[in-house]
């Protein structure tokens, strides 16, 4: 696996009013930086500041401040973001380092509440988390585009193959025409010799002979024009017949489509918008709950027992009193509620936080259902739009065909009128030639007529020869293009294969990354009787919205060994807190690597590692160091002591 290039530039941060920070300036050099200190020393707040500078909105504004800011100077560029309080929410503004921080929030910023990190312990859908940043719909659209291009090329190649079979017949036809032309030219040469011989025997004035020859030339030219007009009429008739057949085919296609595809689905946009609003509301509720949970967990961890100021409506409906009333108790292990001054049990606070976590899980499930319903409606809407586009396209084609039919029928009428005029002209010229005939000229006139007819036939054959040669040349050009089309099709097939296997490849890579690094981590950390933790890709039938579909899932396996050396499969619930934390972190690392974040996200953040013992934390940090330009870790002083002395340490924030 690739690792980030070595850089030497120090990242400079200026922070104001983020988390618990009033104001600070901190330099972070490349490599490992440890934020070391006791609880409530703003270590997590500074990590949130880094996230905000990267572009994330997962940061909190200082409780007594209306505005906050963070500025990052890195590689000659300055990135600044501001946080402004707006009622019960915080508005983020400014440009962060990342255009889209979603993937980094999942797999690079590994604070305690990070979803990828916590997914193992919560029993989340691991495959869904890994694939969340992948725009599957965009991949499907790209596949459809490539398939359409491939089909167009296949149609063109099929046409070329069909035309290729015409070449032998056309070559034979061309040779026949050439032979016929040669025969006619030989016959004409003989006829002209007879005319010359006959002219010597005819006593006639030169003027009469020239007039007769002029009429014969005019007659030949008029006959040639008449034949050409007849051919044009035949061509127009064939084109009109073809257009009418195409019109009939399109009308049949049109009958198979709904008359008003989008009109039948006018409600979709409203339903989609409602689901989007619901999704936004759920996301906001989940985010608010997460912030509330994180805030109170930090208070408990830091022994600063400021409990919940408000709960969501669901929590409040479960009690006749206020949230504070629920926390009242008389045990020895008690604290003072910051909202009302009442004494409450610590266990009650923890129970309340646990209920909030359960409520968050319910909201996450509801959000997943809404997303599924939204995708179903979007698919229905896309199908309706596609049918509408097809109908409009067919109607445009029909309109074009009607215009072309009208134009060709007008041309046909004109050609028929022209044919009548030329036919009359031929009859008139033939009559004039007959008037010029005499007994003395009868034989020579007959010879001239025969020669005239031969010249006309030669002209006609030469026109046929030109048409056949052009057709052969056209097919040969098509055959020359066939090789380019096949190369283009091969490229499209490669792209199709890449797109079709992209999802499968990401899944396979994620499993491979997790299994490889989990094996290495367990070997390094040497947990007692824990042999292996690994993910298996399996196909299962699951429900998506209202349908059942076959879907890949990630099945997490845990293998332990008894004292007698017998291996058995265990469950996540039986992992120690330290083992669960390490597993979650390695899963997040797998996502970090499979989505190539080491190429785009310079910072990886680690926090809340207290469940892991100091020596193992040091080994974990050393392992993660290889994959990030800047690895920033928040540790208690006793845990930080296990790290190498060369590691950069920040002790005051």
UniProtKB/TrEMBL annotation:
The keyword Coiled coil applies. Residues 184-200 have a biased composition (Acidic residues). Residues 174-266, 312-333 are annotated as: Disordered. Residues 217-233 have a biased composition (Basic and acidic residues). It comes from the Archaea. Transmembrane segments: none annotated. Keywords: Coiled coil. Residues 234-243 have a biased composition (Polar residues). Residues 346-509 form a coiled coil. This is Chromosome segregation protein SMC.
């Amino acid at each position: 696996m690739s690792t980030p290039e070595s850089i030497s530039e120090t990242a400079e941060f200026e922070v104001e009013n983020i988390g618990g920070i009033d104001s600070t300036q901190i330099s972070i050099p490349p490599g490992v930086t440890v934020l070391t200190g006791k609880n409530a020393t703003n270590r997590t707040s500074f990590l949130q500041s880094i996230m905000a500078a990267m572009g994330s909105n997962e940061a909190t504004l200082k409780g007594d401040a209306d505005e906050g800011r963070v500025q990052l100077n890195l590689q000659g560029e300055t990135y600044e973001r501001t946080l402004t309080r707006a009622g019960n929410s915080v508005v983020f503004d400014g440009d962060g380092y990342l255009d889209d921080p979603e993937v980094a929030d999942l797999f690079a910023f590994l604070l305690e509440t990070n979803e990828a990190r916590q997914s193992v312990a919560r029993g989340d859908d691991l495959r869904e988390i890994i694939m969340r940043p992948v725009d599957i719909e965009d991949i499907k659209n790209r596949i459809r585009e490539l398939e359409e291009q491939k089909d167009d090329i296949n149609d063109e190649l099929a046409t070329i193959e069909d035309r290729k079979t015409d070449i032998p017949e056309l070559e034979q036809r061309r040779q026949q025409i050439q032979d016929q032309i040669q025969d006619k030219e030989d016959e004409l040469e003989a006829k002209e010799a007879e005319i010359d011989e006959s002219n010597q025997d005819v006593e006639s004035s030169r003027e009469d002979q020239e007039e007769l020859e002029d009429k014969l030339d005019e007659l030949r030219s008029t006959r040639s024009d008449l034949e050409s007009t007849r051919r044009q009429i035949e061509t127009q008739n064939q084109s009109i017949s073809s257009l009418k057949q195409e019109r009939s085919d399109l009308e049949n296609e049109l009958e198979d489509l709904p008359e008003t595809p989008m009109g039948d689905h006018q409600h979709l946009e409203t339903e989609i918008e409602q689901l989007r609003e619901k999704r936004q509301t759920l996301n906001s509720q989940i985010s608010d709950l997460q912030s509330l949970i994180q805030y109170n967990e930090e208070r408990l961890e830091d022994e600063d027992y400021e409990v919940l100021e408000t709960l969501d409506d669901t929590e409040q409906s479960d009690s006749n009193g206020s949230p504070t009333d629920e926390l009242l108790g008389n045990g020895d292990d008690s604290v003072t509620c910051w909202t009302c001054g009442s004494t409450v049990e610590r266990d009650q606070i923890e129970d309340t936080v646990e209920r909030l976590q359960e409520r968050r899980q319910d909201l996450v499930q509801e959000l997943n259902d809404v997303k599924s319903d939204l995708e179903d409606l979007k698919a229905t809407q896309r199908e309706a739009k596609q049918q509408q586009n097809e109908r409009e396209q067919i109607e445009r084609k029909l309109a074009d065909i009607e215009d072309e039919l009208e134009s060709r029928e007008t041309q046909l009428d004109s050609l028929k009128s022209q044919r009548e005029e030329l036919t009359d002209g031929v009859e008139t010229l033939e009559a004039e030639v007959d008037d010029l005939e005499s007994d003395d000229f009868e034989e020579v006139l007959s010879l001239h007529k025969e020669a005239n007819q031969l010249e006309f036939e030669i002209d006609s054959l030469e026109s046929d020869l030109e048409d056949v040669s052009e057709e052969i040349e056209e097919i040969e050009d098509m055959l020359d293009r066939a090789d380019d089309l096949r190369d283009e099709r091969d490229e499209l097939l490669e792209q199709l294969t890449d797109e079709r296997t992209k999802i499968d490849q990401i899944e396979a890579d994620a499993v491979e990354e997790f299994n490889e690094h989990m094996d290495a981590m367990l070997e390094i950390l040497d947990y007692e009787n824990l042999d292996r933790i690994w993910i298996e890709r399996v196909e299962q039938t699951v429900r998506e919205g209202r349908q059942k579909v076959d879907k890949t899932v990630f099945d997490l396996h845990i293998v332990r060994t008894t004292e007698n050396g017998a291996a058995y499969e265990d469950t996540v619930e039986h992992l120690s807190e330290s083992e669960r934390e390490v597993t979650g972190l390695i899963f997040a690392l797998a996502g970090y690597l499979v989505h190539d974040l080491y190429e785009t996200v310079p910072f990886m953040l680690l926090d809340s590692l207290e469940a892991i013992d100091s020596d193992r934390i040091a080994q974990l940090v050393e392992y993660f160091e290889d994959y990030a330009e800047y690895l920033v870790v928040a540790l208690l002083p006793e845990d930080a002591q296990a790290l190498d002395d060369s590691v950069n340490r920040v002790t005051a924030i």
